[in-house]
Amino acid sequence: MIQNHKKPIIEFDGKSYEFAIPQMIVLIIGIPLLSFLIFLSLKLRINYWIYEFTANQIVFFLNSIFSMNSYIIIDSQHNIFPTIFIPNHPSEGNYAITPNCIAAQVFSIIISIIICIPSSTTSSRKKDFMLRKIKSLIFIILFLYIINIFRIVFLLFLNYNGIPFDFIHQSLFVLSAIVGALIFIILVQKWVPEFFFSIYYFYYLIFKSKKTNI
How many independent structural domains does the chain possess? Predict the structure, then answer.
């Protein structure tokens, strides 16, 4: 519920939310800019440990659940990503773990969103704001990381058993995207609802206030 004073105040669940204009600017500009910078950083050689760690997790589950005897090939002398090799594969059986595989774009956007979420200028939910942001960041990344690991595990297993790679890749991507979006919405709404309220606040300032002043 919006209350009209000099500046609008959102009242929800017994708490009030109000945001400053500079916060809105940081939110709108900061998310795409920070996402781009994080994505670029994930492609740096110093961060290749993320790809190797992810590949190790995938191989562990492939071998533990499906007994596929897969292993990782790493060329330390060249600037290339780790490759998962599956013996006795009907086709080549080599799968490079690239930025797309670790959902680098998705994680870059999510991290940027949570970092840029503005705090309310009112005191009703400001005290524990940073703690809630850290908690949401940790749990969202953890859940999405697990979803992505098992997406790749089942992708490789199903492809190994004859299902075309492109078909199963698209199907699992859509499914994991839907599940991931639901997790994001639920956890953000639970811990940092300021994100949704700040978006509505920005919309209200741009469109609703103009109609009110006519």
Answer: 1
